[in-house]
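FORM 7B: Structural annotation worksheet

SECTION A. Query
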Amino acid sequence: MKAVIVLLALLSGVVSFRSQSVAIRGRLMCGSNPASNVRVKLWEEDTGVSEAKKREEGKTVLTRYTDGNGEFLLKGDTVELTPIDPVFKVYHDCDDGIKPGKRKVKFKIPQSYVTNGKTPKKVFDIGTLNLETIFHVSLVRKKLSNLTSTCFFIHPHNFFISLIPNPSSVKVLKSILSSRFSVINI
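SECTION B. Predicted structure
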């Protein structure tokens, strides 16, 4: 009898995992020009965990590039125990001058566009987005001369640096960020 109960418990856990899918389309512009060959991603983010864990536990569902008109259509699916938290990410250099690295913008996709099964029933149309837009919060990855890769969290009122190996890096960082954000002394 105990073996039957254990078997049923195990089977119910297996059955609970389900395929879920989502789709998003739109057009990216850089000013009046189409933003072609821009990397776009569908990402599944785990909510209810710390930001550090999200970076570890989230996963890319699909990566593509915009076409010559800046248009994209992403459709992807994943198997999860809990409802997925889909995110759309854009990595671009629009209105970035000669600054190294890509700007990253992310958008949460509404749950109403998540479908149970491998094929999405609805497509979230994000419309046309001008990447010159300056968002209040963004994550910037920069390659600096004496750092392999540093991740900065930018906010309109402050910023946090995950790694500063030496004072010259702070100077380089301030010069990179000062054109777009108000920079405070650290």
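SECTION C. Observations
The chain has three helices and twelve strands. Confidence is low (pLDDT under 50) at residues 49-56, 137-165, 180-186.

SECTION D. Sign-off
Analyst initials: ____
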